[in-house]
């Protein structure tokens, strides 16, 4: 792992938190969506955000 400054670490934590929040909201939208096409799109977005979380966590080691 590269050494991160405190500012970089705080920024990374912020981005991870935002992506996790997006995943939670999108999953809630998926559960309440009745349109199959929109539901698939929302699920795809939730998966992308979850992948982003995993990538960002990779910077932490």
From TrEMBL:
Q: What InterPro entries does the annotation carry?
A: Ferritin-like
| Stated name of the protein | Spore coat protein
- Write down the species: Carboxydichorda subterranea
Q: Which domain of life is it from?
A: Bacteria
């Amino acid at each position: 792992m590269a050494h991160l400054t405190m500012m970089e670490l705080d920024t990374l934590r912020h981005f991870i938190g935002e992506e996790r929040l997006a995943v939670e909201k999108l999953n809630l939208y998926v559960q309440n969506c009745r349109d199959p096409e929109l539901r698939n799109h929302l699920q795809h977005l939730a998966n992308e955000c979850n992948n982003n979380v995993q990538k960002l966590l990779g910077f932490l080691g």
